[in-house]
Write a structure and sequence with these properties.
It is a single chain. With 148 residues, the chain is an all-alpha fold. It is 53% helix and 3% strand. It has six helices and two strands. It has helices spanning 4-25, 31-38, 46-55, 87-94, 99-107, 127-147; strands at 28-29, 72-73. Strands 1-2 form a two-stranded antiparallel ribbon. The model has no long low-confidence stretch (mean pLDDT 86).
């Protein structure tokens, strides 16, 4: 016999497995790879510098329940290796969400964008829509959390 609790747990597990599967489609860098990509190599406090970028919403990192092993998605960078201009604003919008919810938002198809947000970060015509969709997603997740 299924209870609401079992059904909710199964639904959450299915969602987490789907998100984990997306990590192949949207690769991430580990800490050392990100430090090298950003050219932060020769300072004693390089991990503090990296954490500062994350804390200031300048760089997107996912812990995926493993704080000692953050992952940095490549989709936040443009073809020239720079962070897309819209990423810091989006990170501020998405701050209330968990890593899992944020990764899911970036990597899931959105009908309003006709693409996954991660796939249109560099598109000037999507910039306003990205902000609107992010705000709606946060509000929806907040509302759903309050209902439970």
């Amino acid at each position: 016999m299924y209870t609401k609790k079992t059904t909710t747990r199964d639904s959450i597990l299915a969602s987490l497995k789907a998100i984990e599967a997306k990590q192949d489609e949207y690769p991430c860098l580990n800490v050392e790879e990100m430090l090298n990509k950003l050219g932060i190599n020769d300072t004693a406090n390089r991990l503090d510098i990296l954490q500062g970028l994350v804390d200031k919403h300048q760089l997107l990192a996912f812990n995926f329940s493993q704080p000692s092993n953050p992952r940095f998605p490549l989709f936040q960078f443009n073809a020239h290796g720079q962070i897309h201009e819209c990423v810091p604003t989006l990170l501020a919008y998405l701050e209330p969400l968990s890593d899992w919810a944020t990764f899911n938002w970036f990597t899931s198809f959105n009908h309003d964008l006709d693409a996954a947000p991660a796939d249109v970060l560099g598109s000037p015509e999507h910039r306003g829509s990205l902000m609107d969709v992010a705000g709606l997603y946060v509000n929806s997740n907040t509302f759903n959390s309050l209902k439970q």
